[in-house]
Amino acid sequence: MAxxxxxxxxxxxxxxxxxxxxxxxxxxxxxxxxxHRNLMPAPRWTVSGQPAxxxxxxxxxxxxxxxxxxxxxxYTGMLALEGSGWGGNLEQMRTDRVxxx
Length: 101
What we know:
This protein has a domain at 14-64: Multidrug-efflux Transporter Regulator, Chain: A, Domain 2 (Orthogonal Bundle). A hairpin with a 2-residue loop joins strand 2 (45-47) and strand 3 (50-54). The termini are far apart. The chain has a 3-stranded antiparallel β-sheet with strand order 1-3-2. It is 39% helix and 11% strand. It has helices at residues 17-24, 28-36, 55-64, 76-81, 90-95, and strands spanning 14-16, 45-47, 50-54.
C-alpha cells in the first residue's frame, strides 16, 4: 500500500467537522450534511478516517453563503434604541452592576 505524504503549509489551520460546527454555530451533523450535498468546500485531508478542512477556505465559503454570523455585542441592539426616544445611557448600562436590594 503506497503512502502519500501529508503536506500542510505553516499557515494552514486544519479543522474537523466538530470545530467547523462550533465556529459556525451549528451541529456537527449539519456540517456532514453540507459536505454530502456538496454545499461546502471539499475536505483537504483525512485524519483518522475523518474529513478535515482548511479553516480559511471554510471561513471564506461561510461568509460568502451567509453561514458565518458575526457575534454581536449584547448591547448592539440597545445602541439602536438611542436616538429613538430611549433616554437611557448605554455606557452607564455597560458599567453598572446589578445589586441586590
